[in-house]
Amino acid sequence: MCLSSAQCRAARALLAWSQDDLSSASKVAKATIANFEAGKRSPYDRTLQDVKHALEGAGVVFIPENGGGAGVRLAKRADASIDTNETETVQYEEYLKNDAPPGAGG
After folding, report:
1. Three-state secondary structure along 27-90?
2. Which site in 14, 36, 37, 93 is 20 to 30 Å from 86, CA atoms measured?
3. Which of 18, 28, 16 is nearest to 52 (CA)?
4. For the whole model, what pTM was predicted?
């Protein structure tokens, strides 16, 4: 899958990265990134791969063209926990420590 200029701009926006940030992460000149995103230049495939890998390394997932248009999104972090209510979790832990049924004042 190739990288479009729109995907590059969108990926940077998701990460809140400047062109300088992407340049540092990808080791690609800022001018090359700026010209690519502006549609003034099409970089070499290897350069686009470097940019794409830097963005993927920061958590961007590239969505291929599948009839709905190519796009980008942020990957769910591996260390992200499921949504829990900490109050319920604590009550549940207390229930496991006490033999009293819930509501018995244990």
Report:
1. CCCHHHHHHHHCCCCCCCHHHHHHHHHHHHHCCEEEECCCCCCCEEEECCCCCCCCCCCHHHHH
2. 14
3. 28
4. 0.70
How many Cα atoms sit within 13 Å of 18 on the Cβ side?
5
- Label residue 70 by pLDDT band (50, 70, 90): confident
Of 34, 35, 7, 4, the closest CA to residue 19 belongs to: 34
Token pair of 45 as six digits: 């495939």
Q: What is the DSSP secondary structure assignment for residue 98, as one 8-state letter?
A: -
- CA angle, corner 20, sides to 16 and 26, nearest 5? 95
Work out the pLDDT band at 93, boundaries 50, 70, 90. very low
User: 59: exposed, middle or buried (C-beta count within 10 Å: 0-12, 13-18, 19+)?
Assistant: middle
Alpha-carbon torsion 13, 74, 62, 19, what sign? positive
